[in-house]
Every structure is written in C-alpha cells, then in structure tokens.
Protein 1
Amino acid sequence: MQTSKIDKTKNWTVDDYVLLGETDTPCELINGELFMSPAPNPLHQEVLSNLNDFLKAAARKIGGKVYFAPVDLYIDSKNVFQPDILFLSKDKLTLITPRGIEGSPDLIVEVISPSNTFVDRNTKKKAYLDLGVREYWIVDPGNKTLEIYTPQTGGDTPIFYLVEEGEVKSSVLTDLTFNLREIFSVNP
C-alpha cells in the first residue's frame, strides 16, 4: 500500500492538483492548500443519496444533469472543490469536460459534517456565490436543517430555511418539491 503525504509548505495550483491523478480519497484544493479527508459517515451518505434522488428526477425532466460527489469543480487556478451534489441546466452542459466541471453550476449542495462546517459555511459559500452559482444549499443532518443562499442575498442570509420538515422549493429547479422530512428519513 502506498501512503500519500501532503506538502504543506507548497502553494498548490490546479496544475499540481491534476498531477495527483484519480484517487479514492476525497481531495480538494482550497486557496492553494490541498485538503484530503476520510469518507463521509453513513448518515451523511444517506441524506445525500435521498437528496440526489429528488434532484436527479427533477433535472431529467428538463434535460439537465446532476453529479454526485466526487466530481471536480474548477473554480480558479488555486481552487478545485468537490461539492456533494451539483446541478447543471441544459444550457450549461458544455461546462462538462474530461477533467470535471469548468464553470458555474446552477445549483450546489453541500451536506455539512463537524469537520467541514467552517469551510462549507464560509470559504466555499463565498466562492460558489462569487462564481455565479444561482443557489447554494447547506444541509445539516445533525440539526435537520436546509438553507438556500443566492448571489442576491450576498450569502449572509438564507432565502429559505427549514428545520426538520416543510416543503422545499427551488427557483432553479422549479418543478422540484419535496418535504424536508424525506431527506432526513434514514433507515437504521
């Protein structure tokens, strides 16, 4: 077995990141620093899978695509993120390249965990909204909440916030509706 070491003294670029090749370990390039993390826990994965089912069905109806992590989203020369879910409308399918998604998806979902809360709520939220993502969803399985941010709100206040239950609607995927309870409904 080969062990990977991260050079913390190096200011990583997209070119360096691409040289890593494919890996089973989730990797992201955030502000020139390489981050590797263990696989998400089962609750994270179940919530993500439930969300993916709803988003994928809605996207198919309008000719769009949904990608489930890991897929690389190239932000700029020092940032490559792997959002949990991203949606591309039919008009944005040209952003799909052999190495990942290069440009602004319409919608991004991040399911937060204790280890990534700060990055998802701050660094990534700002980067996604600056990139032009029309909706950024933060899903918190621990608190059973869903927050939706848009560039119009400046990322400070969610335009939509639900706790445990209530109907989720999207301005990006207008035919999408589901009860929040359905994403947090997991089998033991």
Protein 2
Amino acid sequence: MVEFALLLPFVLLLVLGMLDLGKAMHYRNDLTHLANEAARFAAVNKNPGPELTLEESIKSQATTEELRSGGTPGAEGTTTGPLEVEICFPDGVDPQHYEIGDPVKVIVRSEYKWLSILGIGITQELVGTSTMRLEKAWVPGEYGPPTPPGLACP
C-alpha cells in the first residue's frame, strides 16, 4: 500500500500527460485543417457562410466548442484560448491590386494550457498556417479586412 501511494501521483501525472498531449495534437491538427480550409476559400474568393465573414465561418468549423470559443474564461479545466483567424498577403502587395497568382496566407491560432485539470496551466500557442495562390481576383474587404497596407504577414 505504501509503495502504491508513493507511485500513484507519478502514474497519474504520466497518464494525464499522455491524454493531454493527445488532445493538444488533435487541436494542432484541427488548426492546420482550418487554415487549409480558409486558404482554399480565400484562393477561390468564396465564402462558405454568406451571412458571416470568412474568419467567422472558419471558426464555426472547429471540431469542439472549447476550441471554437476558448471555453469559459477563468473556469477550471479550460484548456484553450479563443480561436483567432488571420488572412494576409505575404508579398506586401497593395490591397487594391491583388491579382491571380499572388499568395494568400492564413494563420489560425489558439493558446493551449497544459495539464489545466491539475491546475498547472502552462500555456503554449498552437498555430496552423497555410499559404495558397489566388485563383480568382480578391475583393478587398469582402471577407473582413486583410493585413492593413504596409504590414507584412508574420
């Protein structure tokens, strides 16, 4: 019994750490998938949700409510920050002159809190990115503002 009591915290930390790592990898894969979806929609100048901006449409496609909204602020067990979607043009092209063939980059971010169930809460930013070439002319401001003129994509 004494040995079990001494080993139990380490075994629980190991098991919970593996589960948390799996959840973080799932969220990272989801962010990459969302970035790919957004870049494709931006490349063909199409919005999947006509009543929403492209960013809002992509946020609504996240696989879990926790990833979409960031969970309840300040609640125990919340593992992610709010989802952020950024669409930008990395070549620094004038926003009025986006042409077919120009690259469009999408960055999807969220913060992940490691082992939040144990109250440790070490945060790390999870990022998914995708870059594609425009296949149709971009209409500035139609899907929400891209990076303002003069600012480069990160």
Protein 3
Amino acid sequence: MDSEEQAFLPGSGKLALELLNTARVEDGTHVEDLGSPEAVLRWLESARLLAPGSAGPLRSPPAARDLLTEARRLRASVAHVIEARLAGEVPPPFAVYGINRVLGASRSSTLLSLEEERPSLVELETAEGPLPVLVPIARAAANLLVATDPDRVRRCASEACTRWFVDTSKGGRRKWCSMATCGNRAKAARHRRRTA
C-alpha cells in the first residue's frame, strides 16, 4: 500500500477529523494529502462523498481549483473550532462562520432507494459548485462539536504523528490513532528499550 492510499484510510472515527488528518506531520515531515485538485477528488471518493468518476463538473480545472481552495478553507475552520473546544475556549467566530458558510450551501433532497432490495434513504445535493460536496464534512464537524465529549477527541500520542481520532474505547484511555501503526511502533520501541 503506497503512502497516499494509507493516508486516505479512515481511522479517526469521524469525517471531520478525517479531513483534519489530510494535513499532518509524520516523522517530522509535513504531509499534505490535499496537494492538488485531483487529490481532493480522490479523497472525497475515498470518504464516499463522491462516487468514483461522478464528479462531473467538479473535474473542470476552474471548479477543481475552487474545490481544493474550499476544502482547505473548511479544514482550517474545523481545526480552529476543534482546537478551541479542546482548550476549553469559545471557538473563534471566523471559524464558526467558515463551517456555517459550507452548511448554508446545502440544497439537498432525500430519495427512497431500493439497493439490493433493501430500502434506504439517499440524500442528494442539488446545488452547484464545490461547497455542496463539502456539506457532509461541515455537518460532521458541527455534530462532533455538539455531540462528542471533548475529552474523547484526541491527537495521537506518538511524537511522530499528529493524526486526530475519537476515543470510543470503554475506558477512554486510547492513545494512538491506530494500534496497527503508531501503537505497534510504541510497543516495539518499549520492547527494544527493555531488552537493551
């Protein structure tokens, strides 16, 4: 699995945190997963916000550049709001505005779908432009702030990782973004120190 595929793997438990995890520090190096309009479209597809190949008008160069700008702008707003909340502070109005700006772009309708003979509701965005595609992320950020215990929203304890996650463990003591990566590295390092 290449680094881009690994970067797009969900692991935080919340869509808004997945967006935050697209800009992080790994082993002392800044990693930007949303480095191009094409990368944003791939990330949206991996997050199941766009069906593969369905971006249509968003693939035109001007629209794709706007989508890149708006996705990064939303990511910055989400980061400011979450960091303020975790610090016990009131989120800055400009960041709240940034999230509300995207939420206001929603013009959705709901349809009943029978997929594999099972009824389900499908929400369709009818608005044009890049903002409606980002509405589910803004909605996830708002829900995260309103409905999630701020003590459960964390950054990975690894000094080499800055990924965000929601601790859903029973005891509330999860420290790593992923036990498969950062947790195993920490366990291996402890083992090496003990045996040295």
